[in-house]
Write a structure and sequence with these properties.
Strand order of the largest sheet: 1-7-8-10-9-3
Radius of gyration: 23 Å
Order of helices and strands: EHEEHHHEEEEEHEEHHHEEHHHHHHHH
Number of strands: 12
Bound molecules: adenosine monophosphate, magnesium ion
Helix content: 25-40%
Largest sheet: 6 strands, antiparallel
Distance between the termini: 30 Å
Structural class: alpha+beta
Length: 520
């Protein structure tokens, strides 16, 4: 653990909250507040990610050490760590919520690895901060298993994401009303150490703009560009409007790319509030997210959002754009010209369409996109939604060498498929085969390409719940087994085929599998 060295650029270069008491408050003109993690009574290691550890220069022995357990449970600080909570605001479910901030996340500092990369380390669930508002600053094992495993699964799926280093059971009991229905109960507490180049969100910029603290807004933006978008400085003058616009465009493009990845694998974030949008275009804040089992574009896992379903699968690109509009509003005081900001936002939609089409072409195994392909994509999505079809399994079946109706049997949640559906699928498969023939690609090559973008293994909602049930009973084996399987989500791994099964019937409407709230 002595190997970890720190270079805390965020706290060195940006304004701190002058108060260092840990009392809940509005924090003005500052990017962060100093705060110490709360000690825990009996920490035990549930799991660590060896790949994330490697990013920091730590090996498996380091991760099994007492120093690791004490550090990443919040009981001990290493030399160079200077813990703090970030100040940010955000739009929650479409409404401006004012100051939010790291209410239960405590940053330890920026670790500098041998390759010269900075990795911010952050404990989630390490106790209250000035931003905890009415809540306790803690996290439960249930939501921590979900965040930990999903971060790593997303990374291995090739989706931009924050990472997770460790999952530690704190030995504390934490009270939660899981469904907000008056049934509060104690659950085991946990801390996840998250790792990312930065945890900055759209909301960090929004809060300064909303308070008309323009000097701080500029400081934060210059810092962000200097350290996280430095290549933009090759072509644009520091502090110039052109630079800020180029930066905004880059943030929009990264957001497009991230959203297209989500659509590719059937991921529904569940809480796309602007405080949960990473400025680096990473998937961040794994809360009541879920995966489409049967392809239902209207589905959201988040019961807190059940009424309006603002964050349902099909709505994600629109919300991503809406969030970029909010970021544009915050930048306006530095640009003072709406037109170029609007041009970038208009480009978002075109860019999304382009990237989505290219992504669909790759899912279907086409060498490249051709005129008319979009008709096939749309027809396919209509078919997938018409009878209960497992999206993930369907795309793996589509890669098979014989495109007969029988090849898709494993993908259906219902036994009796209507004849008119079967006829439509047959017609579609015929057109699809004709399109494949134009590509003149060998079956083996097409299969390889398709199986590299259509995963076999996801951290399915019901698998998460099974791993959680076991972990809550003190058995961490499934958490670690899933971590292992999800390292290679595109490989056949026939010995692990049970984890590629469609959602079992018992999980159809079970809490935790298809229904999740923000309670975590
Ligand atoms: P989320 O919906 O998880 O993104 O959280 C929204 C805001 O609530 C953020 O500012 C979080 O830090 C804060 N928050 C969520 N849960 C807790 C908690 N248990 N204790 C303190 N703050 C929390
Ligand atoms: Mg959040």
């Amino acid at each position: 653990m002595k190997k970890l060295t720190f270079d805390n650029r965020f706290t060195h270069e940006l304004p701190a909250d002058p108060l260092d008491t840990n009392a809940r408050r509005q924090v003005q003109n500052a990017c962060f507040s100093w705060v110490q993690p709360s000690p825990v009574s009996a920490p035990s290691l549930v799991s660590f990610s060896k790949e994330t550890a490697e990013l920091l220069g730590l090996n498996e022995d380091d991760c099994r050490s007492n120093a690791f357990l004490n550090t990443f449970s919040g009981n001990q600080l290493l030399d160079g760590m200077q813990p703090y909570a970030m100040c940010y605001g955000g739009h929650q479910f479409g409404n401006w919520a004012g100051q939010l901030g790291d209410g239960r996340a405590i940053n330890l500092g920026e670790s500098l690895n041998q390759a010269g990369q900075h990795w911010a380390l952050q404990l989630k669930g390490a106790g209250p901060t000035p931003y905890s508002r009415t809540a306790d600053g803690l996290a439960v094992l249930r939501s921590s298993v979900r965040e930990y495993l999903c971060s790593e699964a997303m990374h291995h799926l090739g989706v931009p994401t924050t990472r997770a280093l460790s999952l530690i059971n704190t030995g504390e009991q934490v009270m939660r009303d899981m469904l907000y229905n008056g049934n509060a109960a104690y659950e085991p507490g946990a801390v996840v150490c998250r790792v990312s180049p930065s945890f900055l969100r759209f909301g960090n910029f929004q809060l300064f703009a909303s308070r008309k603290q323009i000097d701080e807004l500029r400081l934060l933006l210059d810092f962000t560009i200097r350290h996280h978008f430095s290549t933009l400085l090759d072509d644009h003058q520091a502090g110039s409007k052109e630079l800020y616009l180029a930066w905004f465009n880059e943030v929009c493009q990264r957001t497009v790319t991230m959203t297209v990845h989500w659509m590719r694998i059937g991921f529904v974030h569940g809480v796309m509030n602007t405080d949960n949008m990473s400025i680096l275009g990473l998937t961040i804040d794994y809360g009541p997210y879920g995966w489409l089992d049967n392809f239902d574009p209207e589905w959201t896992p988040n019961t807190t959002d059940a009424q309006n379903r603002r964050y349902r699968y099909s709505q994600q690109p629109n919300i991503a754009l809406w969030n970029c509009y909010q970021l544009a509003n915050s930048l306006y005081p530095l640009i003072e010209d709406a037109e170029p900001l609007e041009a970038i936002l208009n480009n978002f939609q075109a860019s999304y369409q382009d990237q989505w089409r290219a992504m669909m072409a790759s899912k279907l195994g086409f060498k490249s996109l051709q005129d008319g392909d979009e008709v096939l994509f749309e027809q396919l999505e209509t078919l997938l939604a018409r009878v209960e079809t497992d999206m993930t399994i369907f795309y793996r079946c589509l890669a098979s060498n014989k495109l007969t109706l029988a090849s898709f049997t494993p993908a259906y949640y219902q036994d009796d498929l209507p004849q008119d559906y079967l006829d439509s699928l047959q017609t579609w498969l015929h057109d699809y085969q004709a399109r494949l023939d134009q590509d003149n690609r060998s079956v083996a090559e097409r299969q390889r390409a398709m199986n590299a973008v259509n995963p076999k293994y996801l951290f399915r909602n019901y698998l998460a719940q099974q791993a959680i049930d076991k972990a809550e009973a003190g058995d961490y084996s499934m958490v670690n087994q899933l971590l292992e399987v999800l390292r290679k989500p595109y490989d056949e791994q026939t010995e692990h085929a049970q984890f590629a099964q469609r959602r079992p019937d018992w999980a159809r409407s079970k809490v935790g599998c298809s229904m999740l709230s923000c309670s975590s």
